[in-house]
Every structure is written in C-alpha cells, then in structure tokens.
Amino acid sequence: MAPAQMTYLDPREMLAADIYKIMTGIVVPRPIAWVTTKSRQGVVNLAPFSSFTFVSHSPPMLAIGVDTKPHGSGLKDTARNILETQEFVVHIADRSLLPPLHASAEEYPTEISEIEVLGLRTLPASRIGTPRLADAPVAVECRLHRCIELGTGPTRLFIGEVQCFHVRDSLLAAGKIDTALLDPISRLAGPHYATIDQILPGS
Fold first, then answer.
1. Residue 7 placed within a domain
2. Which alpha helices (DSSP H) does the chain contain, by range?
C-alpha cells in the first residue's frame, strides 16, 4: 500500500492565524489549565489555557502559555496578575464544568471578575493569596518560578512551582488519580472540546 499523499506547509510562508489553525489541530487533545489569579486591586480573574503541561516533578512545576491580547493590545489579565503577584492556581475541570469553563474564555473588562459573573464558588487557598474554585475536582496552588517570553507576540510561558495540591477524595486510590473518575475536559481545534471516553491499555 502506497503512503498517503502529504501536503507540505512552510511556516515561513504562512500567516500567523493560519499557523495557529494548523498547530491547534495537530496538538490534540490538549489539557486545559483553568487559572485563577488576583489583581493588586483584589479582582479575581478566571481564564482557561490549553497551552499547558507539567515540566518537572521534583520539584513539581507546571507551565502555561499565555498570549497577548488580540491585535497586540497588551497583556491579558492572567499574565498581568501573575507578573504582579507571582502566584496563580491551576484547576482541572470535569465535564460538569464545561459551560462555565467555555464562558470564562470571553474577554471581560479588567475590573470585572469572571467568577462573579458566572456565579462560581471559591475557597481560600492554603499557601497563597489567590482563591481556588470550590467545585473543581483538582486545584494546584503555584508560585511563579520563571517567565519566558517566546515569539513575536510575545507568548509568555509561566512556569509555576507547585505549593500544594487539592484533590477530590473520590479521585484518589493508593496515591494515584483515577482518570476515568476525574473525567477531564480537553481542548480540540476551534470551539471544540473532548472527554476521555475510552482508555486503552499499553500492551
């Protein structure tokens, strides 16, 4: 059987918007960091980011990529707040939280809290000053370890050192997370999301 025909794409000859469409269609599914931050004025911001992974387990560190606002109009509230306060909380959302997660991606004025608009509940964090979402199955409190600027946007890669984990009791068994019970939401290309409906063995 002959190999399938392939289309050659050179990013040097593509618009940034077209590159974005290709990359977000290739790198799927992407886990979503649902991030709370707090401004110096005390406004709690909430936003989802699918440029997200863990980068170290000793010490534990998470990384999220945050672009600038569209058309180069400045820092997103999440980025500004992290740079000012040096802290943030990453949450993992399950299927039941998809509607508010999607809605929190909308751009609100800086002085408006998405949490208040969406009617979400919060709890005080244990190690930092930014509150966490009460109904998220997982919350990870982080202090900023490093910020790296990438590209011409630029995108800012925030690496946070984990201060503590909050994990719903029903998800833990013998020190491990039950992925099926966690039922995490992930991001696909465009305005689409996915869940883990089938877990395959590795052998």
1. no
2. 16-26, 77-85, 98-103, 114-118, 179-182
Helix (H, G, I), strand (E, B) or coil at 137: coil
Residues of the chain where predicted confidence (pLDDT) is lower than 50? none
Kindly report the three-state secondary structure assignment for every residue of 141-182. Answer: EEEEEEEEEECCCCEEEEEEEEEEEEECHHHEECCEECHHHH
Specify if 96 maps to a domain.
yes
Q: What is the pLDDT of residue 117?
A: 98
In-domain check, residue 203: no
CATH of the domain at 81: 2.30.110.10
- Residues 65-82: pLDDT tens digits? 999 987 666 899 999 999
Task: State the pTM of this model.
Answer: 0.96
- pLDDT, residue 72, reads 64
Domain hosting residue 101, numbered range: 17-23+30-194
Overall number of domains in the chain: 1
